[in-house]
């Protein structure tokens, strides 16, 4: 196996984590990773040996994700979930989630995709502002405002969730 | 000169490691002097920790073979990209199966279970429905006329306090129930209901679930469909060939009563 492929293989766990934070569902997240890897292999020549494949792969994946979100919006797919909004979100198949995990993942899915990507890129994946701005293809100022708004939105959603939960307890 | 004009923006920068090192002490002092900002910072830190914790398990999972194969050039049989909604319910059904097996510990062997399509329990609920709902005379072991015995018997076998939901408001009457195997050593109760037109739905209930989830699962070929819940201690699937919204309504009514019965 050549060095490039070995380097790409070693990035898969991170790509999967990023995809999972963007899409939540394991299978669809892995579909995104698979599309990313396929595109990367076709464009292997664009990547210089010696350079970390991480930024290169994340950039490819981000473009695919944004394309996908546009398609979903056109189809209105989010509107045809079988149960009530929120209730229908199935948990990932691979882990038994704690309530706290489920709440934060639900909240993360509820914020706008742009903010979600910016926040996760920095807070989870550990990219610097400059790197993340580069990967997402936005100015650093835009990235910062997405992160700030994303955090604030996430906090508001989590507060709403805990408020609803305490109301339910009172009703019982 | 020491900087002192910090703002909310700096909270984010500090959190993300973007605050210049020489400003850190002045920033900390500013935070101490502004309890509101300090609380905000602490909250963001806590939310980030929760996010990291929720996603930490992903890094530990074995890489799915199909992803390795892409890189190694061993072309896998690839489904169409961005397969439509089936994966949403299919993924959730695997949780149902895993939860129903009992003794499942988070993270262990989870990916291979999922990849093997080990979604037996959702399949079982549907298989039981397909098999028994079609039976005219032998659909149930204990008929609704003997409801008290049915409930006591199934409760004892399954290990849950089982109260057959009253679905009259939804137009369904209890036909009866039976005991079924579920996921190896587990047992499941199946309760069959029928409406005035002879349309049947069934409830499939097992104990020993350690997971919490809910979703829908559709059999290959489109129907019947299962709406299911897992809660700590039990799993429940409502199976039928009703329009999805109607099935979902009936399922909610049934589930509400089951939970009330179990926790009473």
Counted up, domains of chain B total 2
Task: Find the count of extended strands of chain B (DSSP E, 2+ residues).
Answer: 7
- For the residues shown, what is the average pLDDT of chain A? 81
CATH topology heading of the largest domain in chain B: Phosphorylase Kinase, domain 1
Task: Give the CATH superfamily of the largest domain in chain A.
Answer: RNA polymerase sigma factor, region 2, helix turn helix motif
Q: What is the approximate shape of chain B?
A: elongated
Order of helices and strands of chain B: HHHHHHHEHEEEEEEH
What is the structure about, briefly put?
The complex is a heterodimer of chains A (172) and B (264). With 172 residues, chain A is mainly α.
Explain how this protein is built.
Chain A is mostly helical. Chain A is about 70% helix and about 0% strand. Chain A has 2 domains: about 1-85, Rna Polymerase Sigma Factor, Chain: A (Orthogonal Bundle); about 95-170, Winged helix-like DNA-binding domain superfamily/Winged helix DNA-binding domain (Arc Repressor Mutant, subunit A). The relative contact order of chain A is 0.11. The model of chain A is unreliable at about 75-95 (pLDDT under 50). Chain B is an alpha+beta fold. Chain B has 9 helices and 7 strands; from the N terminus they run αααααααβαββββββα. Chain B has a 7-stranded antiparallel beta sheet, with helices on both faces. Chains A and B meet through helix 1, helix 2, helix 4, helix 5 and helix 7 of A and helix 1, helix 3, helix 4, helix 5 and helix 6 of B.
Tell me the layout of helices and strands.
The complex is a heterodimer of chains A (about 170) and B (about 260).
Chain A: H1 3-23, H2 26-42, H3 53-75, H4 99-110, H5 113-123, H6 129-136, H7 140-171
Chain B: H1 8-15, H2 24-33, H3 35-60, H4 65-72, H5 86-101, H6 110-115, H7 120-132, E1 142-143, H8 147-158, E2 172-182, E3 186-195, E4 200-207, E5 213-218, E6 225-231, E7 234-240, H9 244-262
Antiparallel strand pairs in B: 1-2, 2-3, 3-4, 4-7, 5-6, 6-7
Helix pairs in contact in B: 1-3, 5-7
């Amino acid at each position: 196996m050549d060095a490039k492929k070995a380097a790409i293989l070693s990035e898969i766990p991170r790509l999967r984590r990023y995809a999972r934070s963007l899409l939540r569902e394991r299978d669809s997240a892995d579909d995104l990773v698979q599309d990313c890897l396929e595109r990367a292999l076709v464009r292997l020549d664009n990547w210089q040996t010696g350079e970390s494949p991480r930024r290169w792969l994340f950039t490819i994946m981000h473009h695919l994700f944004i394309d996908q979100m546009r398609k979903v919006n056109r189809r209105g797919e989010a509107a045809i979930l079988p149960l009530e909004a929120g209730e229908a979100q199935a948990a990932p198949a691979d882990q038994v989630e704690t309530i706290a995990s489920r709440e934060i993942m639900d909240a993360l899915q509820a914020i706008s995709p742009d903010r979600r990507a910016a926040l996760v890129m920095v807070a989870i994946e550990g990219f610097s502002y400059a790197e993340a701005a580069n990967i997402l293809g936005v100015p650093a100022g835009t990235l910062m405002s997405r992160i700030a708004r994303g955090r604030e939105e996430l906090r508001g959603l989590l507060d709403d969730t805990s408020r609803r939960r305490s109301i339910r307890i009172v009703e019982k | 000169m020491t900087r002192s004009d910090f703002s909310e923006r700096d909270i984010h920068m500090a959190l993300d490691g973007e605050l210049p090192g020489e400003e850190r002490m002045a920033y900390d002092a500013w935070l101490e002097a502004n309890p509101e900002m300090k609380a905000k910072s602490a909250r963001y830190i806590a939310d980030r920790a929760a996010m990291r914790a929720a996603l930490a398990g992903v890094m530990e999972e074995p890489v799915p073979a199909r992803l390795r194969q892409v890189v190694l050039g061993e072309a896998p049989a690839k489904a169409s990209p961005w397969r439509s909604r089936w994966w949403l319910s299919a993924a959730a059904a695997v949780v149902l199966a895993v939860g129903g097996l009992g003794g499942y510990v988070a993270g262990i062997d989870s990916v291979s279970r999922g990849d093997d399509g080990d979604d037996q329990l959702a399949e079982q609920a549907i298989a039981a429905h397909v098999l028994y709902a079609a039976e005219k005379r032998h659909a149930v072991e204990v008929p609704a006329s003997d409801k008290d015995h049915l409930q006591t018997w199934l409760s004892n076998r399954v290990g849950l306090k089982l109260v057959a939901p009253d679905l009259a408001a939804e137009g369904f009457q209890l036909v009866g129930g039976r005991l079924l195997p579920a996921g190896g050593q587990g047992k499941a109760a199946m309760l069959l209901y029928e409406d005035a037109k002879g349309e049947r739905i069934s409830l499939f209930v097992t104990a020993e679930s350690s997971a919490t989830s809910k979703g829908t699962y559709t059999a290959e070929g489109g129907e019947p469909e299962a709406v299911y819940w897992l809660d700590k201690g039990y799993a429940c699937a409502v199976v039928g060939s009703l329009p999805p919204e109607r099935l979902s309504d009936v399922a909610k009514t049934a589930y509400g009563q089951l939970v009330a019965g179990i926790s009473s």
